Amino acid sequence: MIDLYTFKTPNGRKISIALEELGLPYKTHSVDITQGEQFKPGFLAINPNNKIPAIVDHDAQGGPLSLFESGAILLYLAEKTGRLMPTDPRGKAEVTQWLMFQMGGLGPMLGQLNHFGRFASTKHPYAIDRFQTEAKRILNVVEQQLSSRDYLATTYSIADIATYPWLKGSRDFFPELFTNLPNIIQYLHRVGSRPAVQRGMQVP
Q: According to DSSP H, which parts of 23-88 are helical?
């Protein structure tokens, strides 16, 4: 059994989608970050960085294993099961590359645009323009990658699981960014049609 500590954010839903795709048994613990629950001592003992998601794998070799950072969790689950990640060096490198692209670029840029564009009490045109410009650039990178393939790497993988919730949420809130990005729109439908993805997107 895996304990999943999560909330209804793109980063949280990466892990619930992966667990659903892999068919691993898990128990969900909602950590309401809008109420500061991520700062409670019990959660701090699991994740010293006070952010969701985090897991505790009670079936790990050597005893229960606590993990935080969504990318690290996805890599761990893929290696644990031997799925959602190619085993050959070239394929593995390709998936890892797009996973890191999501974690270091697509996620942070779209996240900052979401913060400054929707939630900041004072609107800062410079910040909004900066992150909107970079978001458009990054989305065009994804659009080009999907022009010749169905998924980011050779096959459906943890890179797609990491990317889909961010694209889905951003399209819901910033539909203007997705004008003239037909490959991404088709990709969202393709990935979003998977039953495991649909279940994972409802957690918690």
A: 41-44, 70-81
Task: Give CA 162 to chain center in angstroms.
Answer: 3
- Continuous segment of H or E residues that includes residue 190: helix 182-192
* Three-state DSSP state, 117: helix
Please say whether the beta carbons of 153 and 187 come within 8 A: no
Query: Whole-model pTM?
Result: 0.96
How many Å apart are CA 138 and CA 144, to the nearest integer? 10
Look at residues 202, 203, 199 and name the one whose alpha carbon lies nearest to residue 20.
Answer: 199
Tokens 């889909």 identify what position?
164
Quickly tell me which residue has 């209804």 as its tokens. Answer: 8
Tell me, rounded to whole angstroms, the distance of Cα 130 from its chain centroid: 22
* Dihedral pair phi/psi, residue 192, rounded to 5°: -65, -15
Q: Which of 41-49's residues contact partners 24+ apart within 8 Å by CB, and which partners?
A: 43/5, 46/5, 47/5
Q: What is the pLDDT of residues 128-151, one digit of tens each?
A: 999 999 999 999 999 999 999 999
**Per-residue pLDDT tens digits for 84-106:** 999 999 999 999 999 999 999 99
Q: What are the pLDDT digits (tens) for 45-74?
A: 999 999 999 999 999 999 999 999 999 999
State the Cα angle at 67 between 23 and 160, rounded to 5°.
50
DSSP state letter for 84: S
Residue 124 DSSP code: -
